[in-house]
Amino acid sequence: MKKVITAILLCMFCICISGCSNDNQKTTWNMRSIQDNNGEVIYCSNESKDVYSNAIVKDIVCILQGSSITITDKSSGNKWIGNCTKLDSSQDIYEVIFDNNKKGVLSKSVTKYEDKTKENTLVVSCEGYTLYFTENTDETN
Predict the structure, then answer these.
(1) What's the pLDDT tens digit per position in 70-88?
(2) Is residue 84 part of a domain?
(3) Which domain of life is it from (predicted)?
(4) Residues with Cβ < 8 Å from 75, sequence gap 6 or more?
(5) Between 55 and which of 13, 19, 44, 135 could a Cys-Cys bridge form, CB atoms 3.0 to 4.6 Å apart?
């Protein structure tokens, strides 16, 4: 099951539709999982805890607004703030530079599942970690 989910999430890079937007619309994303550089899920959302039983449950959100990105760990209050720059005009993949000068890559895509459902997803890779987010469609965030 983990291999299937990992394969689906990795396919998101191939389906990129856009990253940091040029407009100033605020979009909130909820963390689904975080993988280390070995591909092991080390953190997950409460909703994903049954799938990733060895992972630590965390409540992490990402807010994109224009070229700005803010990732917040709601339980600890830690924040990572950065800016996005498009890497290639033919692709919707962005470089992210956080305030601590750590660099990463961001991609927004649509994940399609076997049951024909789909959801907007955001992937941020930085310093050996890959963070997977799903778009928060709930107005209360």
Answers:
(1) 999 998 999 999 999 988 7
(2) yes
(3) Bacteria
(4) 58, 59
(5) 44
